[in-house]
Prior knowledge:
With 227 residues, the chain is an alpha/beta fold.
Amino acid sequence: xxxxxxxxxxxxxIGAATARAxxxxxxxxxxxxxxxDKLTALVQEIGEDRAVAIPCDVTDYEDxxxxxxxxxxxxxRIDAVFANAGIGGKPGGFSGAPPESWRAMVDVNILGVxxxxxxxxxxxxxxxxHVVITSSIAGRRTLSGSMYSATKWAVTAIGYGLRxxxxxTGVRVxxxxxxxxxxxxxxxxxxxxxxPEDIARGVVYALSQPPGVxxxxxxxxxxxxxx
Length: 227
Ligand code: NJP
């Protein structure tokens, strides 16, 4: 039987590319985000027998609980979770960015991930499964004036904390740390960025390791241009 992977932020960018790559690798998929139309189109593409779209706002814990209930109703189990939904910041740094943009990042990037973990862990533990969390290279380095960076450092800490908590349960935790990826995350596509498919291959690689192999971190960066 196919294993079940639940992806948040599945409507676009890295999440959508990972859904396609994981389907190719034999996973069945629970696809969550707010944009129902995009999720539905992705389910059509992958096949209704292999994927289900569940609209969900990750900032709302009850909504995440409903998402998990709907996933279990459809597939009966959750083997792996890709906690990937996230948003970027507004320009201006600590001196100029609108403070409400900071709250939105805390709500989606930090609380959204923590809620996904709380809502799914019981089931992932039952499956001795796998959790992949999208942090960022910005969760390792500090970007000037960046509250985004601060939220991703928090996500890195969540991944470390979860790995300790899961010790002895058979659950593996992988932190994904991409550099720049050309997705709708950016208003203007950056030059020399990775493609979402480049990150998706990494996630599927992590998920496809045998139970005895625990891939802690996956930092994926664009090769610097040849001078
Ligand atoms: O961005 P994008 P990426 N509730 O905008 C969803 C990190 N990252 O794929 O709700 C539920 O294409 C949104 O869905 P929708 C980044 O921090 C990126 O690049 O329909 N879902 C969409 O599916 C993030 O953690 C780069 O609008 C919510 C998805 O999130 C992850 O990669 C570099 C939501 C965003 O897709 C995926 O970002 C890096 C909510 N409240 C880390 N709010 C990069 N692109 O360069 C948003 O280091 N979503």
